Amino acid sequence: MQEKYIDETKQGEAFAIAEKPQNSKKLFLESYGCQMNFSDSEIVASILNEQGYNTTLFPEEADLILLNTCSIREKAEQTVRMRLSQFKNLKKEKPNLTVGVLGCMAERLKTKFLEEEHLVDLVVGPDAYRDLPNLLKETEGGRDAINVILSKEETYADISPVRLGGNGVTAVVTITRGCDNMCTFCVVPFTRGRERSRDPHSIIEECKELWNNGYKEITLLGQNVDSYLWFGGGAKKDFKKASEIQQLTAINFAQLMEMVAIAVPKMRLRFSTSNPHDMSTEVFKVMAKYDNICKYVHLPVQSGSDRMLEKMNRQHTRAEYLALINTAKELLPGVSFSQDMIIGFCGETEEDHQMTLSLMREVEYDYGYMFSYSERPGTPAEKKMEDDIPADVKQRRLAEVIALQGELSRKRMQGYVGRNHEILIEGTSRKNENQWKGRNSQNAVCVFDKLEGQKLGDIVTVFVHGNTQGTLLGRTV
């Protein structure tokens, strides 16, 4: 899986939005897993807002409870199951309550949820959110409702997402859906379907709308943004069947990013997530050309061992990955990187593990997302490989990776000390209400004292005078 993950240890995140006075029903919507799920929840909220639902932060108030689920790691699934059990008890008190699951678990566990465990009334896959009004009518008649059909066309390009529970400063704009990369550990191609790209004009219009509504930073989002390819619509795999004119006028990710940078020149731009084998030098050149594109790349590698990369079907080597990193550093002085690492994949030896540690030292990541491997049903690894690394070995290796990343993060943070940085104010510090928090271009979090006249959404010059492992400490210049 190529996405940057929200903290899965949380129970999930529930959202509330501005209410329509005429709406009479309440929706409780909770999201788990990756940024794509949170983006999808905004689409769902928009669809249901037009169907008479206002959102609530309290499940006991709701007429409809929806969990947008994740199948990437076992812990996420266990958390969702516990949550559904709680709602099953709530349903005994409110017989008319409708409970449903959306997203990746919906597609993968549809039969268990509906027929075997009777935990939900409604199961909706990632490409079927437009069908929610019809499915809800089915449940009103006392019937279970399901639609998990995957699409080669659906991008929800014409739906204006309702921005849920955000800060009014930063937002995500989805540019692709699905994934064609058959990494052996990953379930996403089976739960989210084929890769397809969204019309660039709808992307630009959404970015302009966000700017006009006061947003100051957007993240272009996809399972694999680097493989963005617009040639008129449809699955990317069908590009070779497109007409000559379609192929000649197709727009790739670097071109899209340049179009957005020009369309909203004062808007900060980020993107997530990249796949090393699809990332191109052209992207780095565009990043260097435009000041409003942040100098940060989330570039998952998963392992530093060529043997493991081949078993994972990552389609790149260690040397190719490092060459990409070095090219970026040459074109973008000061660029920062973050990583995803899977520890203890099938057959991983101590030598493979040491190669991961050495890769981390060579790249010097700012931070990372590190997990021990958990076998996911339905993946090629689950079908063809043995999950043969003992749990204690996985945990020891994971601890070593986390400890090393801690050292690297502190070193990288120290490198930002003693200089001025442009920081976008995103909110109040969690630890001190008299301080702001924000990020610099390299995605490093900075906290600094509030001054009179400063407000949310301002970009201010901050001198960084100190750091912790993961945070910069500064003062306004």
From TrEMBL:
Keywords, in A-Z order? 4Fe-4S, Cytoplasm, Iron, Iron-sulfur, Metal-binding, S-adenosyl-L-methionine, Transferase, tRNA processing
> Cellular location of this protein?
Cytoplasm
Q: How is the cofactor bound?
A: Binds 2 [4Fe-4S] clusters. One cluster is coordinated with 3 cysteines and an exchangeable S-adenosyl-L-methionine.
Q: What is its main location?
A: cytoplasm
The residues the record assigns to binding [4Fe-4S] cluster 2 are 179, 183, 186
Q: What is this enzyme's EC?
A: 2.8.4.3
Under SUPFAM superfamilies, the record lists: Radical SAM enzymes
Q: What region holds the Radical SAM core domain?
A: 165-411
Residues holding [4Fe-4S] cluster 1: 34, 70, 104
List, separated by semicolons, the cofactors it needs.
Answer: [4Fe-4S] cluster
**Its catalytic activity?**
N(6)-dimethylallyladenosine(37) in tRNA + (sulfur carrier)-SH + AH2 + 2 S-adenosyl-L-methionine = 2-methylsulfanyl-N(6)-dimethylallyladenosine(37) in tRNA + (sulfur carrier)-H + 5'-deoxyadenosine + L-methionine + A + S-adenosyl-L-homocysteine + 2 H(+)
Q: Name one Pfam family in it.
A: UPF0004
What GO molecular-function term can you cite, just one?
metal ion binding
Q: Where is the MTTase N-terminal domain?
A: 25-141
GO CC terms: cytosol
This protein's superkingdom? Bacteria
Q: Name the InterPro entries for this protein.
A: Elp3/MiaA/NifB-like_rSAM, Methylthiotransferase, Methylthiotransferase_CS, Methylthiotransferase_N, Methylthiotransferase_N_sf, MiaB_methiolase, rSAM, rSAM_horseshoe
> Which enzyme class, named as a word?
transferase
Q: Where does the TRAM domain start and stop, copy by copy?
A: 414-477
What's the subunit arrangement here?
Answer: Monomer.
PANTHER family in the record, alphabetically?
CDK5 REGULATORY SUBUNIT-ASSOCIATED PROTEIN 1, MITOCHONDRIAL TRNA METHYLTHIOTRANSFERASE CDK5RAP1
Its annotated function is as follows: Catalyzes the methylthiolation of N6-(dimethylallyl)adenosine (i(6)A), leading to the formation of 2-methylthio-N6-(dimethylallyl)adenosine (ms(2)i(6)A) at position 37 in tRNAs that read codons beginning with uridine.
- HAMAP family of this UniProt entry? tRNA_metthiotr_MiaB (MF_01864)
Q: Give the family, as the similarity comment puts it.
A: Belongs to the methylthiotransferase family. MiaB subfamily.
What is the recorded name of this protein? tRNA-2-methylthio-N(6)-dimethylallyladenosine synthase
